[in-house]
Amino acid sequence: QVQLAESGGGLVQPGGSLRLSCTASGRTILTVGMGWYRQRPGKQRELVAWITNGGAADYADSVKGRFTISRGSNLNTVYLQTNSLKPEDTALYYCNARLINKDEYWGQGTQVTVSS
What we know:
The chain is mainly β. It has strands spanning 2-7, 10-12, 18-26, 31-39, 46-52, 57-59, 67-71, 77-82, 91-99, 104-106, 110-114.
């Protein structure tokens, strides 16, 4: 199993920035990639950004150019730098880890609220 712990959410004004962090523990050697999803009020959970162990990253169109995903040197941590935040970025952000056997694990979520 893999356990995920997120941090870094909060309340920020439009145009502001936050850095989300997620640390994995457990059988992390089996991961093939990690990423961030979000669930906005009244919407389904959606992919925000994903990064493989090799460093290949993919982003939702709505965050390209504003958000950057990265991994820590030991591959057990994933970060999401969020810049130029908009009110529509308000959501519960979840960390996700995918294993080589296709199992997936989720964190508890960290709330990001963009409001003036």
